[in-house]
Amino acid sequence: MSRYTIPAEPYEFEGEGARTALVIIDMQRDFVEPGGFGEALGNDVSPLRATIEPTRRVLERARRLGMMVVHTREGHRADLTDCPPTKIARGRGKTRIGDASAMGRLLVRGEHGHDIVPELYPIAGEPIIDKPGKGAFYATDLELILRNRGIASLIVCGVTTEVCVNTSVREANDRGFECLVLSDCVGSYFPEFQKAGLAMIKAQGGIFGWVSDSSRVLAALG
Ligand code: TIU
Hints:
Layout: E1 3-6, E2 13-16, E3 20-25, H1 29-32, H2 37-40, H3 46-49, H4 52-65, E4 68-74, H5 85-89, E5 100-101, E6 104-105, E7 128-131, H6 142-148, E8 153-159, H7 161-174, E9 178-187, H8 191-206, E10 210-212, H9 214-221
Parallel strand pairs: 3-4, 3-8, 4-7, 8-9, 9-10
Antiparallel strand pairs: 1-2, 5-6
Helix pairs in contact: 4-9, 7-8
The protein binds tricarbonodiimidic diamide.
């Protein structure tokens, strides 16, 4: 893959295929299926499921083109030693991180709910970054992995737009990576946060990055 130009806001996103990674954030059952962590926080998970199919199309294209693909998962060790007590307590919810659910212990590594949905399941050669926080760079080896492969640009999909996607894009931006966020491949439990989460990225001349969508990416990547 050579150089590409993807129509985007605030202006076109330019990059090089060999130096671009598709990063899919936290497409875990715990966030997109009923009975998981997202629902335990009081959310209706159904709006998030609309991101699966467009993300699958972009993932398939990236694989076909030989573009690097990275997946992340938010979650914790079984003993929760890597989970701040404040994160467990926050929200005063009845069901909390580490508690039993129909999909296993909420947000705990190795549990059914913690894993990635089958439609987007990683294949051999695609690194999975297990992260304890909202940001994909915090307390992970993501930056090392991207630098080792000479990655400069990230095409970002996943959930949720204003939480883990925004946090990760801001972390990536401060590290000098150029981020393109795909509006139909990122989802929020809140329509107003979806809108604001995307607007904040592309405002001020692309203060954190660019916004496009799956159709424009698929057309541009050929
Ligand atoms: N992955 C991610 O966004 N984690 C969250 O907890 N998101 C919420 O919107 N709660």
